[in-house]
Amino acid sequence: MTLFGSRRWPVTLRHGPVLLRPLRRRDEAEYHAVRALNTEWTRPWDSTRPPGSSGQGITYAEMVRSFAADARAGRSLPWAIMWAPEGERPRLAGQMSITGIVHGSARWGMAGYWVAQGLAGRGIAPTALALAADHMFEALELHRLEVAIRPENTKSIRVVEKLGLRLEGIRPAFMHVDGAWRDHAVYVLHAEEVEPEGVIGRLAGP
Q1: Residue 146: which CATH number?
Q2: Closest Cα to residue 200, out of 128, 138, 143, 136?
């Protein structure tokens, strides 16, 4: 893993052609284009607002400002996933976030991610999750990583299984996703379970 700059936000991480960096205002056109192209791909796994929820959707600029404020306050780690093979212009491949970060005696966070359909199958999601996990364990000294996945999302389950996260259980009606309250399988990893070479070192495993 390569860390660019400070361990405090903004943080940029890289391993091979996978780059994690904050979303920028100038990414807006590309972000909307990628999201539009992948609407059907991500819809079954996208969070939604329950009926009767208050508040309106936010603009892209408001989203970027909110991400940055939460990151600086230590509440989240919101990255764009960039696909950046050597010699090519980096392009937006998806998003990786560690949210709900709790410090104090708990010291945990929950990861969420998506990768564009056209770039699926290249190991981008496992690499991005490994980079994020190593950063939260090492730089933030968090203890517990959670990933909540709908049991039907077999592609995402393969990502966490590849990195050796363990299934802890099922949380019924855990999150409002794709228009309804959905059960989620919770996969976890604790800091003391990680080898000296980090979670990124697990990518070379079987």
Answers
A1: 3.40.630.30
A2: 128
Range of the domain at 155: 2-204
Digit-coded pLDDT (tens) for 81-114: 999 999 899 999 999 999 999 999 999 999 999 9
Q: In terms of DSSP bridges, do strands 166-177 and 91-102 run parallel, antiparallel, or are they unpaired? A: unpaired
- H-helix or E-strand spanning residue 98: strand 91-102
Name the pLDDT band for 53 (thresholds 50, 70, 90): confident
The answer to whether the CB of 199 falls within 8 A of the CB of 147 is no
Residue 182's pLDDT band, with cuts at 50, 70 and 90, is very high
Query: Whose structure tokens read 């969070």?
Result: 47
Output the DSSP codes for 143-184. -EEEEEE-TT-HHHHHHHHHTT-EEEEEEEEEEEETTEEEEE
Site of tokens 């919101």: 78
Residue 129 in contact with residue 159, Cβ under 8 Å? yes
Number of domains into which the chain is organized: 1
| CA–CA distance, 76 with 68 (Å, rounded to integer) | 9
The Cα–Cα gap between 184 and 173 comes to: 7
Neighbours of 94 (CB within 10 A): 23
pLDDT score recorded for residue 58:
87
Q: How many residues does the chain have?
A: 206
φ/ψ of 41, rounded to 5, equals: -65, -40
Model-level pTM greater than 0.85? yes
